[in-house]
Amino acid sequence: MSSNASTYDQYFVGTTASADLLGEQQKYKKDTSGAIVVAQNNDEWHHSTIIIYDNVMDNKSMSTQERIGNATHEIGHSLKLAHPGEGTERVRSVPSGKVAIMQQGIAGYGPQEYDEVELKEKWGT
Question: DSSP character for 70?
Fold first, then answer.
């Protein structure tokens, strides 16, 4: 399945019929012919499209801070961060009593220590 010809990350605010979907990421890669195609979960991907869903955030009466947290979480995915405890490279959970912006759900905070460690391990200091 071919996708858009973009080769850089793109970010959008949109709407969805899915009542609980706050945002999502679509990953892309180049196939053997060099065409941009949708990447599967275990593929090494090249770039992504991130969408946050304004209508769902409205329906959940999310505050401005929670909306920023949602956008930050989705941007984390574009930086190749997974939800804690997920991922093919390493499975690491958030320590008991701690939080992370990459945890699923509504959060009214920004990146936490867990997220910073993940970024440094993924991309360097």
Answer: H
Q: Could you tell me the residue ranges of all domains in the chain?
A: 10-123
Judge whether 27 and 45 are in contact, CB under 8 Å. Answer: yes
CA angle 29, 84, 118 (to 5 degrees): 75
* Identity of the residue numbered 23: G
- Please tell me the distance from the alpha carbon of residue 41 to that of residue 26, in angstroms, as a whole number: 10
On whether the CB atoms of residues 94 and 114 are closer than 8 A, the answer is yes
Residue among 36, 113, 41 nearest 80 (CA): 41
Q: What is the pTM of this model?
A: 0.86
In this structure, what token pair is assigned to residue 53? 């869903």
In angstroms, what CA-CA distances link 87 with 34, 115, 118, 125? 26, 14, 12, 21
Residue located via tokens 């920004």: 110
| 63 dihedral zone (left: phi>0; alpha: psi -120 to 50; beta) | beta
Give the model confidence (pLDDT) of 69-116 as tens digits. 999 999 999 999 988 877 655 557 888 889 999 999 999 999 999 999
